TrEMBL record:
Entry's Gene Ontology BP terms: succinate metabolic process
Protein name, as recorded: FAD assembly factor SdhE
Pfam family, one: Sdh5
Similarity comment: family membership: Belongs to the SdhE FAD assembly factor family.
High-level lineage: Bacteria, Pseudomonadati, Pseudomonadota, Betaproteobacteria, Burkholderiales
Domain of life according to the entry: Bacteria
Organism: Limnobacter thiooxidans
PANTHER family cross-referenced by the UniProt entry: FAD ASSEMBLY FACTOR SDHE
UniProt entry keywords in alphabetical sequence: Chaperone, Cytoplasm
Subcellular localization(s) per the UniProt record: Cytoplasm
């Protein structure tokens, strides 16, 4: 992996983790496992994709994470799909 695109700013990652806190416990568990496994390897594109995802309501997120729904509209980008797949693979 190239470190060129790595999100090296710990403050930015901490803000993203704080923003990831959700109202549904299931989402919190999935997102926490995701960060525990992938936080140090996230790229700037991954962070942007997560920022877009975290704008969604909890039920939509859970459906995306569990594969009950596929990304549509603004969520249908390669970067968002990559992050969703990383969540599904946990």
């Amino acid at each position: 992996m190239s470190n060129q695109n790595h999100q090296a700013d710990p403050t930015q990652r901490a803000r993203l983790r704080w923003r990831a806190r959700r109202g549904l416990l299931e989402n919190d568990l999935i997102i926490e496992r995701f960060f525990d496994k992938h936080e140090m390897e996230l790229t700037d594109n991954d962070v942007q994709a997560l920022t877009v995802l975290f704008e969604e309501v909890d039920n939509v997120l859970l459906d995306l994470f569990l594969g009950r729904k596929e990304p549509e509209g603004d969520l249908d980008t390669p970067d968002v799909r990559k992050v969703i797949q990383m969540m599904r693979d946990l």
